[in-house]
Amino acid sequence: NTDQRPAKDVIVACAAATSSEGYDRPSLALDQHRFLRELTLAKPPKPLVVLVIAPGAVLTDWAARADAVLLMFLAGQAAGEAWADVLLGDTSPSGKLPLTLPESESDVQPPCEAAECECVEGLAVGWR
After folding, report:
1. DSSP secondary structure letters along the chain
2. CA pair distance 1, 119, nearest whole angstrom
3. N or C: fewer beta carbons within 10 Å in the chain?
4. Rounded distance between C-alpha atoms, residue 106 and residue 25, angstroms
5. The whole model's pTM is what?
6. For residues 97 and 95, what is the distance between their CA atoms, to the nearest angstrom?
7. Topology of domain 2-107, per CATH?
8. Are 105 and 27 in contact (CB under 8 A)?
9. Where are the domains of the chain?
10. What DSSP letter does each residue of 4-36 carry, written as one string?
């Protein structure tokens, strides 16, 4: 029941990474990466919650300056209802990330377009 919850003013910023079948993303940046960097550097006057929808890893150099970051992987047509459930406290935003979220492109091995690729990251893959 939302009537019993205390009111809280927050800024909610939404971001996503465009993706589709048969299309490679040109980088790990979100489509709104520059906006998020500028917004978090500006130190907003109210708590900042960033909602992200992504197909996989995205750059997170701005995330430490946000008050909360929620990541959803390609939720489909129910994404809006799912976000509302989390933001209103009806559902706990729980789960474990199946991947590493790098701060910069240099934190991950660059894409390999050759037929054979050398994997040199050793144990530095996954959680860091």
Report:
1. -GGGSPP---EEEEEE----TT---SSSS-TTHHHHHHHHHT--SS-EEEEEEESS----TTGGGSSEEEEEE--GGGHHHHHHHHHTTSS------SS---SSGGGSPPP--SSS-----TT-SS--
2. 51
3. N
4. 16
5. 0.79
6. 7
7. Rossmann fold (3.40.50)
8. yes
9. 2-107
10. GSPP---EEEEEE----TT---SSSS-TTHHHH
For residue 128, name the pLDDT band (cuts at 50, 70, 90): very low
Name the token pair of 37: 């960097």
| Per-residue confidence (pLDDT) for residue 7, from 0 to 100 | 66
User: Would the CA dihedral through 111, 114, 118, 119 be positive or negative?
Assistant: positive
Read off the tokens for 107: 């934190």
